[in-house]
Specification:
α9 crosses α16, α12 packs across α14 and α14 packs across α15. This protein is α/β, with parallel strands linked by helices and 477 residues long. It is globular, with a radius of gyration of 22 Å. The strands form six sheets. The protein has a seven-stranded mixed sheet, with helices on both faces. Strands 3-2-1-6-14-13 form a six-stranded mixed sheet, with helices on both faces. Strands 4-5 form a two-stranded antiparallel ribbon. Helix content is 39%, strand content 22%. The termini are far apart. The structure holds beta-L-fructofuranose. Beta-L-fructofuranose binds next to α9 and β16.
Length: 477
């Protein structure tokens, strides 16, 4: 039988890729068409995404896709969460989308919870963890610092929605990405108009919520002409990258946790219903919307961001070094007592990550890490130490033991990280697939097309096509 071809556009905080999925009725195969860096731009004091460049790379990727294959069934888009673009009444983009690490949201969460709604109430309504860059907080910062721009805004589109708009001309908000914004009500899974009103934000900018698995439009004539593709449909997938990654995680048992490992580490479990109680709030667990009506009960841990920023620092200082070499030197570090708290504020967006780690270790009486290996091991210990804490928190809240951790995403190419995760948590680690977001994206397209029945069948397909690697916990000295 003829194969079917699906395009996944997956934008992460450090890079994007356009991939082709080939489905032959039994197995799925991936082909990389285009990969590019995602390099934010500091403009004065403000950190922006380079949205125009990302859109250009997207369209370039579509052109390259068209050269390889003529028969594309559909396109799906997923990106990181919380960030957005605002359109005016002529559908022009108002300003450039801000990076969630931009410092304009500093103290905003505080201001909102002091003046408008307590954190307890906000959490009970939305079920979303406290992160300084939640969309709710960003919009409030827009109002506070650039009120005239927000006044002009007619539509808010999260990043995946924004890309989709420029491909098809249709505006909507996809549910999984909307669910990380802290603008949804966890109980109804719809917008919470009272919340916006309480904080003084314009409700009219919110769009119709679309569930993953729907066709939302076809490429505009202009985009068809630009890319050489035909009238290809765009499907709303789990457009939050983490929703897609979890969709593609073939969890071995209902008591398994997933750990999506990229710039961020997202560690949690899949549930049928949101869970908000004092313990989940104190531990800052979030309830994000998944595909097929599932809830991703998880916590963000600052992940490879630290290692990525170390590498950037070394590269800029003339020491070209790849991730495998960094990992190797960390594993071999002579002095390996160093450990940081990766979620400490000082690591959110430091100008020099190596200096931030040296200062942290110095201030905490650990001495000063100096070599590449020592700096990196401080990060590895910090990250895996947080994993352990999150697992302990999950077990306390859920009242059962997690029996395995299923790791996916780019980070699992680092065998040292996988093994250390097993050792520190004492859990069996199952690793794979690497391209989880891309595969979850394609899976939703297959489900929309009726080629795959549901999530469970899709996960079997992914397990069958890509397999997993097991790491057993070893006693630590
Ligand atoms: C992962 C991710 C996380 C989100 C963070 C910021 O790529 O989407 O889920 O909390 O990026 O958007």
């Amino acid at each position: 039988p003829n194969s079917l071809f699906y395009v996944a556009a997956d934008f992460g905080a450090s890079g994007g890729r356009i991939m082709l999925g080939e489905y032959n009725g039994r197995n799925l195969r991936l082909e990389e068409v285009h990969r590019f860096a995602n390099e934010p731009v500091m403009l004065g004091k403000t950190l922006y995404w380079d949205f125009l460049r990302l859109l250009l790379e997207f369209k370039r990727g579509l052109t390259l896709t068209g050269i390889r294959r003529k028969n594309i069934s559909s396109i799906g888009i997923d990106t990181w969460g919380v960030d957005y673009g605002l359109l005016d009444r002529r559908d022009e983009l108002i300003g450039n989308p801000y990076h969630y690490r931009d410092q304009r949201t500093e103290n905003i969460g505080r201001e909102i919870t002091d003046n408008f709604i307590s954190w307890e109430k906000l959490y009970a309504k939305t079920g979303v963890q406290y992160l300084p860059f939640n969309t709710l907080f960003q919009l409030y910062a827009d109002k506070k610092y650039r009120g005239s721009l927000l006044e002009q805004a007619e539509s808010l589109l999260f990043l995946p929605d924004l890309f989709a708009f420029y491909l098809t001309g249709h505006k909507y908000n996809e549910y999984t990405v909307a669910s990380t914004s802290q603008l949804l009500n966890a109980g109804t899974a719809g917008w919470d108009p009272d919340l916006l009103q309480a904080v003084g934000l314009p409700g009219k900018i919110l769009q119709t919520l679309i569930r993953p698995g729907q066709v939302t439009g076809i490429l505009t004539r202009a985009v068809q002409a630009e890319t050489g593709l035909g009238a290809v449909p765009v499907i709303a997938v789990g457009s939050h990258d983490t929703a897609s990654a979890v969709a593609a995680t073939p969890l071995a048992t209902a008591q398994s946790a997933y750990l999506s490992c990229g710039t961020w580490s997202l560690l949690g479990v899949e549930r049928d219903r949101p869970l908000m109680n004092a313990l989940s709030r104190q531990n800052n667990f979030t309830n994000e919307g998944g595909v097929e009506g599932k809830i991703r009960f998880l916590k963000n841990v600052t992940g490879l961001w630290i290692i990525q920023q170390l590498r950037k620092h070394w590269t800029e200082n003339g020491e070209e070094i790849g991730f495998p070499a960094i990992s190797k030197q960390a594993a071999a570090a002579k002095n390996n007592r160093f450990v940081i708290d990766p979620d400490a504020d000082v690591f959110r967006a430091p100008a020099d990550m190596a200096a931030a780690i040296r200062d942290y270790c110095g201030d905490h009486g650990q001495g000063i890490p100096r070599t590449i290996g020592e700096l990196a091991i401080a990060a590895y210990h910090g990250i895996t130490g947080q994993y352990k804490q999150v697992i302990d928190g999950l077990e306390a809240i859920l009242g059962y033991r997690i029996d395995a951790i299923h790791m996916v995403g780019g980070g699992i190419q680092d065998g040292f990280l996988c093994q250390l995760t097993a050792d520190v948590t004492g859990k069996t680690v199952l690793a794979g697939p690497v391209e989880a977001s891309v595969l979850g994206n394609i899976l939703l397209q297959l489900i929309a097309a009726g080629e795959v029945k549901n999530l469970a069948e899709g996960r079997e397909l992914i397990q069958r096509s890509f397999g997993t690697q097991e790491y057993s916990p070893q006693p630590r000295e």
